[in-house]
Fold these 2 entries.
Entry 1:
Amino acid sequence: MVYLIDASVYVFRAWHAWRSAMADAEGNPTHALYGFARLLVELLERRRPSHVAVAFDESHGRGLRHRIFPAYKANRESAPLALRRQFALCRQLCRELGIAEFASEEFEADDLIGTLAARCRAEGLPVTIVSCDKDLAQLIGAQDVFWDYADAREYRYGEIAERFGVRPERMADYLALCGDGVDNVPGVPGVGRKTAALLVAAFDSLEELFASPERLAQLPLRGAARLPARLAEHRQSVYLARALTGICCDVPLAAGSTTLARRAPDVARVAAFCALQGFGPLLARQAERLAAQFSELERSPASPARSSAAA
């Protein structure tokens, strides 16, 4: 199992939740970094994964989706400098812990995770996606897991529809129809979540939906007779939204399962890093345990980490 971690959602959550006076020697806030670090090392200790990758968002309004639709995520405030600084330190910590990390100015973390998931599956490796972002549920296949770490809930393919209202492979179509206020993606006026869920359940694709006005008018929905005209009027905006809600799974990354194999953490560098950030000894001690854990993984004859190192 390969663990793919959506870092940004947890860094932002720590930024808003901790709000402590934690700071480095120069007075720079470090609480978001600390919250993410705690999550990462606890996950590594609990699950002992042989393959892990962490994806970060760095497009900052300049990426592919913003060129398609300039208002994409325009409802969000820009991350303050103090938070952007901590994102960079989160990436550094991943490297010190021997964890592969990825970021792109062109593609979002979702796309990086989608690409890594596709490559792992091509090698016969299932994935666990660690996130609470519903968009990433569209990547879940039959052998995969969607893990909402903060809520301690795991969802397999057959449970995604119960949690989010639609099957994974239809999530992007669903969001294109009802819209996604979190990302400022417009939907069809008058089409809410329940209507969108019924539409994607009744039609196998957006193309079939737009080609079947008679069936649309007969759906067991209030106002169904007006649906064909309403959808036809907003057809172009639906396809625009679909370009925003779909996750790209072919980002040009120089990465495969070997790249995602854990490496030994640099305990001395992690300890120095924690001291510099004013964290105290807890994370440094956890890094020592992770190093011992990694040694155990390497000694296992069937260890992917050992095979990767030998390669």
Entry 2:
Amino acid sequence: MISNKETIAQLAKEGKRIDGRGLMDYRQPIQLETNISWTAEGSAKVQIGETVVMAGVKLAIEKPYNDTSDQGGIMINAELLPLSSPEYESGPPGIKAIELARVTDRGIREAKAIDMKKLCITPGEKAWFVIIDIVTINDAGNLFDAASLAALTALKAAKFPEVDPETGAINYKKKTDQGLPLLKEPLAVTIYKINGQLIVDPTTQEEHSYDARLTVASDEKGTISALQKGGELPLTIEEVGKMVDIALEKAKFLRAEVDKVVK
């Protein structure tokens, strides 16, 4: 596989890519699978080309935060396993894992995707908290899109566990038919700029060669909930506009893949 930055940049300038795809083409296959973990309330595995990411949703009853005493909460963690790339090591989350979790979190949180008030059981005392754990199985590029896909799919597949009405104890071995109160279905798409050209779904080699990137999170109506800029070089207003348009179009494409496996 060609990994020379100059070669990748030259190919991009000519509208070409190292694997023969078009600039706007996602790798194949794109595969989504739900309920891969019986210990999670919702789970999903996403594959884009050779990139594989898993997400699990756990539901716990906690005391609400003081400033949102009538609402539940959401937390997202990401772990880049050493088995998924030689670049990753065991230990505390690194900068890339923290950014992956924050970007995924922001797209969901700022969209107000979950009705947090419906997660409240007793104001000021008890509320459901949604914890999403994202784990990389194989990093072959484009973790941002894969993680967002996995998180949304796991959220849509999640079911509340049974709760004893007398003791309030959670029986995690039994799930109800009640899903999460989802108001919106945000998905993040990241557009990369390489040598003046815009591309989607980069390989690892292309990620090492980009000049700038923009992650755009949007819901099913095309409403943008979050933007995250990355890379050392700036973007013009015109480029940002083009990247947003591409992201909205590709989000529809990816959302159709989610709808195939979970409604």
